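Lest this sound abstract, we think one record worth quoting, the chain in one-letter code, the fold tokenised, each line plainly labelled:

>
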Amino acid sequence: MKKGKKLYEGKAKIIYATQDKDLVIQYFKDDATAFNNQKKTTIDGKGVLNNRISEHILSNLSQIGIKNHLVKRLNMREQIVKLVEIIPIEFIVRNVATGSLTKRLGIEDGTVLKEPLIEYCLKDDKLGDPLIAEEHIYAFEWANKKEIEKVKKMILRINDFMIGMFRGIGIKLIDFKLEFGRLKVNGKNEIILADEISPDTCRLWDSITDKKLDKDRFRKDLGDLIPAYTEVAKRLGILHEQSNVSAVNVTQLSSVKKKSR
């Protein structure tokens, strides 16, 4: 599929038009950012791993009936995805208290929550993606009640599936971020899962050691991201497929150096 003009560039991905008005190409960058872009660098190979991990997870979610924007992976860094109207809300799903939640509420880090906690943030980098209440969503018409109720049902199903998937490979799913979009189907809006699911958007801890296998390694200067992301991909059974990692050697990924911008 031919890549057209750039439609959007975010912190981790670029969206390009194609000859099909309903499909776009999503390119995974090597950029790593934290604290609302206050901390940033480039890490060779990160985009390749996130592309492959996200494809694997979204494909598995499709198999259990979770509709999402993924059509197929094109190559090491690109996917064809459906063009959707993104709902301007980041849905944060928490199973264990850590990060900003513990700072805001004084909760002990690592506290296991009795039920999944869903939080809402307005998707606006200039404002720092502020935490909002569900009432804000309706008051400012970012989404309606029917849409949010559907999203919440999907979130709980996604969470249940991903907890089990990661538990089976010795990883605890601590929390993660989801985004959803509207897709026109027969003239009506359908809500589907969009964006990516990867170690960039999830907190993943080793089940035995609590070692961080996610972007907190960059946020908290815990060491290189690439070995951790590679470990997640290996446990998911991805990296044994040589055709899918062609030019990216696992050994090279493990020793890659960060290049500061």
